[in-house]
Please model this.
Amino acid sequence: MSEETSNSSTGMDSTDVTAKPAKGGPSRGLLIGGLVAIVVIAGVILVSNNSDAPRSGTALCATTSTQCEIGDIGPGGGKVYSLGGATSPADCTQYDCLEVAPAKWFGSADPTGNWSTAKSRAAAYATSNAAAGTWRLPSQAELVALAGQPTSVSGLDSFNTYWSSTAGQTYDRQLDELVAGAYCRTISTVGSCSQTTTNVYARPIHTF
Model:
């Protein structure tokens, strides 16, 4: 008998909402409730899976290096990069990692200045999770590692020369003598710049 046929013995139409389900079958309420539960569970699963998606270079990582990957945004707001030579997403438990300040950390662009000015500006830089005094110029080795990263991670302009914190001596042609210098470099070219008379770019880093 179809659902549209009336039950003459009871006077109740089979489409009446008070009709009981067939023996042994689930009620409509249970079916609807089960579907809702499945949808809710599926939603939770989707959210969980989304949080474990591959990093895009904009993911935030926790304040412990074990949860950071190369290219992530670190606790201080800068891009995470590797000192160990890795250039693609990798867990920082395998490599020593630092973070480099964004390209526009000093207003609209990287600032230029002599070595002393560059160090002072780097030390004064502060973000919500990295106070002033925790940012600094990279050492020679740290700047070399930074220059070896993809530009999407380092943010360095390939035509600009950047200061390191490593002091040394450099030859001044005008004075014809050795003067106080510091290691400086572009992405591809290394050198030594006069601490006082050379004005080049600066990009601070942060240890976490």
Notes: The longest strand covers residues 162-172. The chain has four helices and eleven strands.
